[in-house]
Specification:
mainly alpha; disordered N terminus; 1% strand; 71% helix
Amino acid sequence: MEERVWWQRKCLVEICLMHPLDVVKTRGRIFRFQIQRGKTDPTSYKSLGDSFRTIFRTEGLFGFYKGILPPIMAETPKRAVKFFTFEQYKKLLGHASLSPGLTFAVAGLGSGLTEAVVVNPFEVVKVSLQANRNAFTEQPSTFVQARRIITTEGLGFRGLNKGLTATLGRHGVFNMVYFGFYFNVKNIIPVNEEPTLEFLRKFGIGLVSGTIASIINIPFDVAKSRIQGPQPEPGEIKYKTCFKTMAIVYKEEGFLALYKGLVPKIMRLGPGGAVMLLVYEYAYAWLQKNW
């Protein structure tokens, strides 16, 4: 019970600290927005700093916390699903004739796909709130927005499960690289007997894991934001499926447009991914020892 309460508090603190970067990432390209359509977009931001300044000036401090309730509600079950299913897939794959390295990667892929199904409805609500440029006090609440999406668009792939394929790709690829890289590299680099150096060894590998996974999966993230965010023309659905959306972005805006929002994403998920893996490792070791 104490372990669960501690984990929930840790998730809450992390979300509150990192959510402004998520808002900026959803709004921005490499230094501009994932949901804006290039330099001619009248809502375009010039840089990461300009994004922060403009949001603060036009929407206030609370503008950085738009859409924060869905991740708060989803984060604890999301992390539970991520690590629980990773362990289950790993055990299941133990019966197959796969190398240990491939087992970690495939188990990570499975856990990511499972996680995506759980979190996608929360992501749809979160992105729709983050895309709203009204002042924080003028935008609808999370529950009002969720009800509006269900009422007008339903529960299917045009409503609360919009962008599911892109979310599957985002989480599947991220977890495959994240777990696969971390556990394979961790087994290659020798363990250090000194606790502080051992902690830094694991943190460094986790940091690189989160960074590489973020770089590889961001095209899916861009596609997800485009599909779940506001469409360029009201009443016309331009961004429909994951790979078609990637193709449109590449054709109209170039290759680098598929990496919009990369800097704030790395700033959030690089160290965040390292911390998450360390918590998982030490918590898992404690449970193995005491249960």
